[in-house]
Amino acid sequence: MGASNFLKLLSDEQISYVHESALRIIERFGVSVEDAAARDLLLSRGCRELAGRVAITRDFVESALEGFRPSITLRSPAGAVKKLGEGKLLCHSTGGAPWIADSAAGKHRHASMEDLINCVRVMNRMEGLDLPCALVYPSEIPPQITQFVQAATLFRYSEKPVMCPGVSSFGNARYIGELFKMLGNDCGIVGISPESPLFWPKEITDSARVFAELGVPLDILAAPMAGMTAPITTVGCVTMCHAEILAFAAFCGAINPQTPLVYGARAFSANMRTCQVAVGLPETGTASAMSAMLAQKCGLPSDVYGVGCTSCDMDEQAGYEKMMCGLLPALAGADMITGLGSLASVMCGSLEQIVIDDEIVLMIKKICSGYDVSEDTIGFSAIEEALQGDGNFLAEEHTVEHLKKGAVFSPAIGFNGQLMNWIDDGKPPIGEKPRAAVKDIIAEKPRVILDEALDRELHKLTAAAERELVNVINQPF
Question: Which DSSP state fits 308?
Fold first, then answer.
């Protein structure tokens, strides 16, 4: 399990100390569990009542960890296969931004259903993006069914397995569960978010039960904020996040030990002057790197924050924040990083930013892919032939062979020439190529991935969700 671990921000002894501290936290202080049935399940497994909370015991957690899978195989209805936790870094887009950066209009606006569909269509073309997520909330969709519609749209248009939005509504969970029954339990992952600090609302435990009973992969998205819902220090926030994931993972395992679980750490820091999350801080990258190491210790595949930023535009700030916060956890062995396509601490999505971020993650994947050290890669034969000749390696067979294998990264978006070439080209800004790529993709006719029979069933399910959860019939998407 896990990608190559090139970076260790914490020693093995420190990781063990954090893990032990998290176990102490949930056993000593417990979890506030709103639902009586969830509390009863925990108590039946040896957990204890604790002044209105439930103490999550070490034995309960450790027993659950023994049964979890270190890897998960996902298959889309279109036939694409992605394997999480098998040594190859995966990436997915972020989800749930209310705003979209509309480059054509030159403004930021509330996102629409058309924007969501176009996001998925662009993601289908991105080589480095493995799992599309619903980058934006479509503003015209009633909030009572937004999460279901986001998931349905992903399945309808995505050629890849999907990352469903974080589910916080039991009604939406039931209907998303029906989608998985229709399309297969392994066609995607569902996010579920226990609240910080250490609180499980009934809506969350009921939703988790839906997916755990079905055996749908669950991404436990614990998201404490340093200084507000967790200690201000990075290691303190990470420890709280770890405690929340351990407790909720054990709960899901008690429902169904075969539930595939993902360690979805989202340990954030904030601008403490405004008390608003700031994703582009170095603490995001370091917290994610530590979390990836903790996931490895627990034998769970990890999904941590990565290619996000506080910047509100696709500018220099976005570039350095995204590379810094994405590369650190990747080097620490994260199995999957998120954040692609997001701006403004996940308040805004951008089609063009998806394209730029795809190039960033391709660079990160290249760095983290591992390195073969052998006589061939060192190039003994090429050295011999070049030194016996004119000393030029350019025409050597070794050079041509390894260039074809990708020895040197070739950017599709970033400029890769000389200063005079850039001047002669009119000094094109970084956004020019992404805008052209997006324009070409969305100019094509949208293609529904599902076959006609499944698409009809999906529309029937959408109508049923509207009748029950909204009680009105909206325009079909």
Answer: -
CB atoms within 10 A of CB 401: 12
CA 456 vs CA 5, 451, 459: distances in Å? 46, 9, 5
pLDDT 10s digits, 211-240: 999 999 999 999 999 999 999 999 999 999
pLDDT at 374: 93
Neighbours of 301 (CB within 10 A): 29
pLDDT tens track for 171-190: 999 999 999 999 999 999 99
How much is the pLDDT for 3? 56
Average pLDDT, integer, range 440-446 = 95
CA torsion sign for 281, 16, 230, 224 is positive
Q: So what's the pLDDT on residue 477? A: 46
Q: Which two tokens stand for residue 368?
A: 């983290």
List alpha helices for 272-315, DSSP H. Answer: 282-298
C-alpha 397: how far from chain center: 40
Question: In the 8-state DSSP scheme, what is residue 281?
Answer: S
How far, in Å, CA of 299 to CA of 128, rounded?
25
Q: Which domains does the chain have, with CATH numbers?
A: 1-370+412-477 (3.20.20.480), 375-404 (no CATH)
DSSP string, 28-87: HT-BEE--HHHHHHHHHTT-EEETTEEE--HHHHHHHHHH--S-EEEE-TTS-EEEETSS
